[in-house]
Amino acid sequence: FGADRDVASISTADVQKYANHLQGISNNRGGTLSTGSQRHYLNSLSNLFRRAQSEGVVPPGYNPVGALMERPSGKPAEARWLEPHEAALLLESARTYRPGPNAHGGPIYPLLSVMLLTGGRRSEVLGLEVDDVSFNRQTMTFRPNEWRRLKTLTSHRSVRLWPQLEAILRLYFAEKEREGGLGRLLFPSPVSRSESLITDFRKALAVVAMRAGWNKGEIRSKMFRHTYCSARLQTLDGGAPVSPFTVGKELGHGGTSMVQRVYSHLGKVRHRSDVVEYRVENHREALGDRLTTLEKLTT
Asked: How far is CA 93 from the centre of its chain?
């Protein structure tokens, strides 16, 4: 619209031209923006006009985006996630992966383990501090700190430290002690002279995933939150199926709506366990040749 454009002069016809323009914008994968992404851009513009109304920059009710007759909408589709045996294979690949000296992914095995076994958001996990892990209380706490904020007020929470994750982190802590100890961050960037957050581990994740038989770019960190929720819903709590409200709280939600609409998935594997875990020894039959290939590659 132009940097000096008066927002009160933007008409619905201008917004329609903008919507048409969005249809031809390229995304970062070589295609064009999806209809869902186009809708996201228009919603952001609509929010700008809501702010302009509240500050008296435009008259009350002035929102040319809202006057559009038709707006693009995303096609509803189930998010991608991993079955327990697939998560086990990915973790086994990360455990046996030996990165080269120039690898920038950080401690990929414990990092992926925390994501898959807590359901924490990417930024939440990358910003964890050492003190957020309590072996005595068997908990991991997500709370705001100087490294990053949390998404919502309900995001401040403690999640049970499952036995598999506890064992992985105890080994990680011991290894770091031998190397000189940890600072404040649980997963500090290995390429920064001063303690700072890891900003990107996609390359390391891609290598780990391809070792286990996935294609490059097929595994994304956002899948891990969905994976944890689906696995957690299959567990028992006091001998009874766990409550979706409990799972929602562990994910940092205020209720069950997001669990039921977005994060829960029903897979082919049905299991009832007291804990969330992904161990390859429990899924050898389901993994078959993929596990055999990984074991040969590791050898």
From this structure: 19
Tokens of 281: 């020894």
Largest CA distance in the chain: 70
The per-residue pLDDT for 103 is 58
Least confident among 7-11, 16-20, 76-80? 76-80
What CA–CA distance (Å, rounded) separates 293 from 299?
10
222-232 helix and 84-96 helix, angle to the nearest 10 degrees = 130
Alpha carbons 87 and 219: distance in angstroms, whole number = 11
Encoded tokens for 293? 């290939």
SS3 53: helix
Distance (Å) of CA 50 to CA 4, 10, 12, 14, 186? 19, 14, 15, 17, 40
Q: 275: closest CA among 236, 248, 246?
A: 236
The pairing of strands 139-142 and 157-160 is: antiparallel
Q: How far apart are CA 140 and CA 79, in angstroms?
A: 26
* 147, pLDDT greater than 80: yes
Lowest mean pLDDT across 112-116, 219-223, 269-273: 269-273
Report the alpha-carbon distance of residue 264 to residue 244 in Å, rounded: 9
Q: pLDDT, tens digit, for every residue of 32-47? A: 888 888 999 999 999 9
- Report d(CA 46, CA 66) in Å as an integer: 7
pLDDT tens readout for residues 243-256? 999 999 999 998 89
- Helices 84-96 and 108-118 meet at what angle, rounded to 10? 160
- What is the structure's pLDDT at 88? 96
**Pairing status of strand 236-237 against strand 157-160:** unpaired
Distance, in Å, from the CA atom of 240 to the CA atom of 203, rounded to the nearest integer, reads: 41
Q: H helices of the chain, where? A: 12-22, 35-54, 84-96, 108-118, 122-126, 163-178, 202-211, 222-232, 244-250, 257-258, 284-287, 289-298
